[in-house]
Amino acid sequence: MRRGGNWVFAVYVAGVLAASMSTLPASPQQAAEGPGAATFENAVSPVLANTCSLCHNRQLASGGFDAAAFLDPASLASKREGWELILQKLRAGEMPPQGIPRSQAQIDALVQYVQGEFAKTDLNTKLDPGRVTVHRLNRNEYANTIRDLLGVEFRAQKDFPTDDSGEGFDNIGDILTISPVLMEKYLAAAERIASRAVAADPLPKPFSVEYAAKDKRIRRVDSSSVEASHRIDFDGEYVVRFALPGERPADAKPVMLGVWMDGKLVGSKMVETKPSGLVFFDPYSEEEMRLALPEGDHVFRASFIDDDFVKGLAPRDLYNRKHNKFIDGMVFVGPFKPKAAPASRARILICDPNSGPACVEKIVGALARRAYRRPVSKAEVASLVRFVAIAKAHGQSAEQGIQLALQAMLVSPNFLFRIEHDANPTDPTAVHRISDVELASRLSYFLWSSMPDDALLDSAEAGRLHAPAALDSQVKRMLADPRASALAGNFAAQWLETRNLDVVKPDPQKFPEWDPELRDAMRTETSLFFDYILRENRPMADFLDSRYTFLNERLARHYGIEGVKGPEFRKIDLTTGERGGVLGQAGVLTVSSYATRTSVVIRGKYILQEILGTPPAPPPPDVPPLDEAAVGTSLSLRQQMEKHRANAVCASCHSKMDPLGFGLENYDAVGKWRTLDGKFPVDSSGTLPNGKTFATPAEMRAALVSLVPQFARSLVEKLMIYALGRGVAPYDRRAIDQITGRLADQGYPFQTAIYEIVRSAPFQMRRGELIQTQVPANTEEASK
Amino acid sequence: MNITRKALHRRSFLRGMGAAVGLPFLDAMVPAMALARAARPPLRMAFAYVPNGIIMDQWNPAHEGRLGELPRILKTMEPHRDDILMLGNLTHNTGRALLDGAGDHGRCSGSYLTGIQVKKTTVDIRAGVSCDQIVARHVADQTRFPSLEVGMEDARQAGDCDSGYSCAYTNNLAWKSETQPLPPILNPRALFERLFGNGVILSPETQARQADYRRSILDFVGEDTRKLEATLGPTDRRKLDEYLSSIREVERQIERAEKTNAQIDPHMEKPYGVPADFAEHFTLMSDMITIAFQADLTRVVTFMMTREGTSRPYRELGISDGHHPCTHHQNKPELIEKVTQINTYHATQMAGWVAKLKSIREGDRRLLDNMMLVYGAGLSDGNRHLHEDLPTMVIGNARGTIKTGRRIVYRRETPMCNLHLAMMERMGVHMEHFGDATGQLTFADLA
Q1: Mean per-residue pLDDT for A168-181?
Q2: CB contact under 8 A, A783 and B431
Q3: Which of A164, A191, A407 sits opposite B155 (nearest CB)?
Q4: 3-class SS at A446?
Q5: Contacting residues of A for B224, CB less than 8 Å apart
Q6: By C-alpha distance, which of B3, B38, B8, B23 is closest to B362?
Q7: Cα(A585)–Cα(A582) distance, rounded to whole angstroms?
Q8: Residue A125: its pLDDT value, please?
Q9: What average pLDDT does this structure show over A251-275?
């Protein structure tokens, strides 16, 4: 098949490319050259031999590491991974440990020398951009792509099976598979989506579904509100009827009846509550609204808005028909044909398909180009146009034929997968730049979790996209677009684990304040905070400590911050040291806790893994757990943890995790500020892996800010994994070094990380696959 | 088979599916699912899995041979004593570290039905074809669904799952290929629609048209895929092969569905979402599995009650600590008690299901007699992550080929895969090798 975009070059030589795409980092060894230049013997050997080998010798080999193996200059080439680990420990200040005499100047010189040697080596090594496996759209990408392609809201998160994740993200090409169940879902979804978008099918006869209190099919949220979960089977208009038994006194005022779908107000009207004057044994009235409702599972809530009357009513009279008028049920009748056709219909039917084959081809061609996110060939259009004939053969209209063609596109591998091509798919040395249209998709799925829009695709098809200036201006435009909030929803919510707010279940006895509203507020805070740093191009250090956050009334109350009224979120300047940065956000603090209590271990691990990028080794089995009953009664948590660390096996990791976790002990398991844990005063003093100590969360945040270089590197790695949809490998280090170098030069503005990833070789290039032969397991056919 | 209002009284169905009721739903479906019965009812195989090990001294009966009084966890199973076979000393060696370090939960779940020591990775997952899928492939042309994968707990959404093991290993039991896990259906509504359709009544013409359209679409995308594959590398091709094989399976289903032409009442209330109550959720899922067996929609089921390593609290039992943290009980009586209660709760759900399977007649037998349902876990002692003497119970006598009502204790370290081999054999698939199996498990009478 033909590939889109201009395909001028097939194979590039690494050196040429590296030079044409971006400059390499200023090599640190240059400074050290000239007379008295550093050598392995004068910069490396003394530290290894005199300092490291105190513990890392053949007898002790602390941490399984013997420094003697690294005394040979050849080890720089032969033991690169080991050296990288040494560099990481030295740079982070984790080694040498406290109490070992050290000369920082010597250590800096060692780090600089080794980094310089590596930079030299890398310059002479062939560039390896890695290879991204063909990538199935995950649930979020699918839903966003359908939204941007057709203007149809489809909630794939509810309909499709959960996507498995790896490396902390659910957009890893290797892990995203297709099962028969998912294929069935794709087929069914394509039928419904195409039908909704073209709106050429007749609606079925209306029917009614009733939700009444007497059948226990509605939930009473409070005395003025009821809620029911209802599935709307077709886009269309529905008459929603509200059963309103009872009456209020003759002087009662009318009240506003509102109806919400999934938390959004969709209709309201004034309702009379005083006696009707008609003779009723059992006073009762109904109200109805005709609403345009979208297909899908929804939660509907009906409520009397600001209903002051019930506040003066005795609880036993709330549902007494002689004393109150209340909402007792909802009935949905529909679907009815909507007055206006959906916008998607006009967008698809750009000419009258009954006018002849030229128009049909035009419609199908335009749709396919956008659905496949690349130019389509004449043959491809022809094979799709066939569906119009198939539909007509079944006695259906040309519009329904286009609907069928669209249905086919939506299950085609060209739609469901992001596919990139190689001239030599099995030659790992065939390094080449991806085509401009492939680049457009990489870019849009990175920044928007969705398809390229017309501006992006046009630029790619014209062959302009790969030009650095054009690319930068597209990134700038895309980051300013509302769709870029996908980075907060998909990248940040997985990086910071706030997606797990959906699955955590804090103990209602211990945390009665926990409810869906608080949970959603927590999620929104972190999401808006990330979005702000991104869009305002704030320094990355803001993630670690900031003098602002985003709150609504509910969350502000949770934080004990006064003066925030109403459900809307707004930026709030923080005036005390209690909060600041992601580690002071309730969502982060909740997902890193147990259901009943905080865990310094989980939180410490969280900081090591998500913030510092140095996850601890996994625990051995048979771990002694905390004595839950004793915490806060006989021993403080800290005393217990210290007991735990007396065990040498535990200590090796817990001496790093726990002291970090203690820094967050002022927040309970749902992130509320506290100064007592049980009957013990909270002691939130602790130590960073580099030995820096702190006494309060605010001091810990300040200390973390001093580790911005390490944090930035970790964040860049995670962004890179997310951007590429694959794990990072040793050959990506070059790009990551370069990106973090640029960030450092500019003071770590967050957007620079995005721009630099887009500019990097792993993002713009690929190579053929290295074939490993492996015997497949359990695939031998059954022998009879 | 034609399910219409006649067979299915609408009101009973409404109530059955709407609220916390399971049995009326099942009752309502049974007459509707009037089966075109084969001369001989088929044999079915199912696995019901619970995570984080079991308190073994409350699970293992004291003696070999005929089952007497059952230990605490299995108390509610006592009425079914004659229909269960308790197996001792089955081991999954591939669940052990074997130089791969921590991650017993990810590993034991990944190896449970594959018998493979899964690759320790968070990216390029690799296990093996699971025994249920080997059978599913074999019986694929005889039922609408080669297999059903059912679960009750949503996957963890972010973070890592177990010490460097991808969540794919803990989210899934069934593996269609070494790189293609089959995700379980968690939502009763989704399972309902998969089995019975979405309830939109279609005229025979509309139905025929829809099937024809689907077939043309599948032909079209199959063609597209083959064209694409020619230009791709081997890993990419493997991904598209998964896609193609899924297409072929859906094609088969369309064929089958056309033959059976089942329809349900479009106004009928369907399950909405996931019930908050564990028992209610279990009842809905197990009822639908039962119907799927009864109607011969499938013969192979894997049912993962909750995920390995789950921290689900059991508020139903007044336990607000997570299941997993409790299992690292360090021999503290109060934690062991909590885990025992959770184990007992799970077994109680199973007992309720078994009672239903026994109550359904199939020819001159009970549905359960044409089944072998394994109930068990991938760890024995969850505190120490032990992979030997895995708690394993076979329920149903597989058409009289397994003598139940007993406990058999095998030699130590008998591979679990031997059980898989024996079960596959009964399902008509003879394999010489599977995982680390040393031969088919024999259910010889030791009494």
Answers
A1: 91
A2: yes
A3: A164
A4: helix
A5: 412-414
A6: B38
A7: 5
A8: 82
A9: 91
**In chain A, which residues have their Cβ closer than 8 Å to the Cβ of B300?**
none
Which of B149, B159, B266 shows the shortest C-beta gap to A168? B159
CATH classification code of A207-336: 2.60.120.260
Task: Calculate how close chain A gets to B417, using CA atoms only, in Å.
Answer: 12
pLDDT at B207: 80
Decide if domain B43-191+268-426 falls under CATH 3.40.720: yes
Listed by start position, the domains of chain B span 43-191+268-426, 202-262
How many beta-carbon contacts under 8 Å exist across A and B?
A: 300
In B, which residues are within 8 Å of A624 by CB distance? 328, 330
What is the pTM for the complete model shown?
Answer: 0.81
Residue of A nearest to B320 (CA): A507
Mutate to test the interface with A, among B15, B117, B157 (most CBs of A within 10 A): B157
Of A168, A217, A780, the CB nearest to B160: A168
Domain boundaries, chain A: 14-124, 207-336, 488-708
Q: Using a CB-CB distance cutoff of 8 angstroms, which residues of chain B are in contact with residue A426?
A: 233-234
Instruction: Give me A636's structure tokens.
Output: 């403080």
Please report the ipTM that was assigned to this predicted complex. 0.80
Residue A476 CA to residue B66 CA, distance in Å, equals 75
Select the residue of B102, B156, B231 nearest A618 (Cβ to Cβ): B102
Of B122, B156, B430, the CB nearest to A782: B430
Residue contact A778–B243, C-beta within 8 A: no
Q: Which long-range contacts (CB under 8 A, 24 or more apart) does B430-434 make?
A: B430/A782, B430/A783, B430/A784, B431/A780, B431/A782, B431/A783, B431/B134, B432/A783, B433/A780, B434/A778, B434/B115, B434/B131, B434/B134
Each of the 447 residues of chain B gets a pLDDT tens digit; together they read 333 333 333 333 333 333 323 334 555 554 444 444 455 789 999 999 999 999 999 999 999 999 999 999 999 999 999 999 999 999 999 999 888 888 899 999 999 999 999 999 888 889 999 999 999 999 988 888 999 999 998 776 666 677 888 889 999 999 999 999 999 999 888 888 888 776 666 677 888 888 899 999 999 999 999 888 888 988 899 899 989 988 888 888 777 776 665 555 555 566 766 787 899 899 989 999 998 898 888 999 999 999 998 888 898 899 988 899 899 888 889 999 999 999 999 999 999 999 999 998 888 889 999 999 999 999 999 998 999 999 999 999 999 999 999 999 999 999 999 999 999 999 999 999 999 999 999 986 543
pLDDT band at A15 (very low <50, low <70, confident <90, very high): very low
Chain B nearest CA to A767, separation (Å): 10
A42: amino acid identity, one letter: N
